[in-house]
Amino acid sequence: MKIKEVREMDAKTLAETKENLQEKLAQMQLNHTVTPLENPSQIKAVRRDIARLNTEIRQRELNK
After folding, report:
1. Which segments of the protein form a coiled coil according to its record (predicted)?
2. Domain boundaries, the chain
3. Alpha-carbon distance 16 to 36, whole Å?
4. Distance CA 31, CA 33 (A)
């Protein structure tokens, strides 16, 4: 997910996407502890996407 895509989302979509990604991250981490993922860098990518969403949400709060 690119930052440009994140900036185009509305507030409701940002919150929903963040929640979905957090659930996905938790599931991936659980699966990775049981059986190693084929590509563990996926966890890093999801964490970065969540960080991008958090950053955009915070910027919007500060601009209000």
Report:
1. 11-63
2. 3-63
3. 28
4. 5
The chain-wide mean pLDDT, for the chain, equals: 95
DSSP 9: S
CATH of 3-63, one of 1.20.120, 1.10.287, 1.10.40, 3.90.470: 1.10.287
Q: Which residues of 4-39 are buried (b: 16+ CB within 10 A; e: fewer)?
A: eebeebeeeebeebbeebeeebeebeeeeeeeeeee
Q: Which token pair is 43?
A: 């966890």
Distance CA 20, CA 61 (A): 21
The model carries a pTM of 0.91
Residue 29: which region, alpha, beta or left (left: phi > 0; alpha: psi -120 to 50)?
Answer: alpha
Whether the CB-CB separation of 9 and 17 falls below 8 Å is answered with yes
